[in-house]
């Protein structure tokens, strides 16, 4: 398929709520997912949401293992369509996050360390499962994109303004 350009915050598509997928088993949906995977692995990242490549649909992918020592480079991404959290733990962790749409910026974000998720696959089949640790954090991070949020939205207003000013100057001018 093809590698797409990753949008840089605050480009419009990154600040809008994405639309649900209503048509499944469509070749264009499969092409979108394959393009997202090609783009994510090339970047390289462990997750990507459709709005990050300019497509306002509730589609995300993750592969939290491929860059780890245990994963040793094997690629096995997961597809999350129309995801919704059914539950989030009260126990939280601070994790350092970065984002392909917020290049060269990292910071600690407090997130629940366990979640229960309902989502659909490429055929529209519905799944429900619990996740914890890095996978739970990655899911929350990617699904924020589907709601028009990025991880710096969790920072103080002053820090966020400084970051946005830097991003605009470096990537959007």
Features:
two-stranded antiparallel ribbon, 7 strands, 3 helices, Peptide Deformylase, alpha+beta, 173 residues, five-stranded antiparallel β-sheet
Quick take:
The chain has 173 residues and is an alpha+beta fold. Helix content is 26%, strand content 29%.
CATH architecture group name: Alpha-Beta Complex
Widest β-sheet, arrangement of strands: 1-2-3-6-7
Helical content class: 25-40%
Outline the low-pLDDT stretches: none
Shape: globular
Number of alpha- plus pi-helical segments: 3
Which class do the helix and strand fractions yield? alpha+beta
Distance between the termini: 30 Å
Specify the CATH homologous superfamily: Peptide deformylase
Major beta-sheet overview: 5 strands, antiparallel
Tell me the number of structural domains.
1
CATH class: Alpha Beta
Strand content: 25-35%
Order of helices and strands: HEEEEEEEHH
CA radius of gyration is 16 Å
Mean pLDDT: 94
CATH topology-level fold name: Peptide Deformylase
Descriptive overview:
This protein has 173 residues and is an alpha+beta fold. It has a single domain, classed as Peptide Deformylase (Alpha-Beta Complex). The protein has three helices and seven strands, in the order αβββββββαα. It has helices at 27-42, 133-146, 157-171; strands at residues 47-49, 59-62, 78-88, 92-99, 102-112, 114-120, 126-132. The chain has a five-stranded antiparallel beta sheet with strand order 1-2-3-6-7, with helices on both faces. It has a two-stranded antiparallel ribbon with strand order 4-5. The longest helix is centred in the N-terminal third of the chain and has 16 residues, at 27-42. It starts with 26 loop residues before the first helix and ends with a helix. The mean pLDDT is 94.
């Amino acid at each position: 398929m093809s590698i797409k350009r990753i949008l840089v915050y605050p480009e419009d598509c990154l600040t809008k709520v994405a639309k649900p997928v209503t048509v499944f088993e469509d070749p264009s949906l499969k092409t979108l997912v394959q393009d997202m995977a090609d783009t994510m692995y090339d970047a390289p990242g462990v997750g990507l949401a459709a709005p990050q490549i300019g497509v306002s649909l509730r589609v995300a992918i993750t592969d939290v293992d491929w860059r780890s020592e245990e994963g040793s480079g094997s690629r096995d991404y997961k597809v999350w369509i129309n995801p919704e959290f059914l539950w989030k733990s009260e126990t939280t962790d601070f994790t350092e996050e970065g984002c392909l749409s917020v290049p060269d910026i990292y910071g600690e974000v407090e997130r629940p360390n366990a979640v229960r998720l309902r989502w659909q696959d490429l055929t529209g089949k519905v799944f429900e499962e619990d996740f914890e640790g890095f996978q739970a954090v990655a899911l929350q991070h990617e699904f924020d994109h589907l709601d028009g949020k990025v991880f710096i939205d969790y920072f103080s207003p002053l820090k966020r303004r400084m970051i946005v000013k830097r991003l605009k100057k470096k990537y959007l001018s």
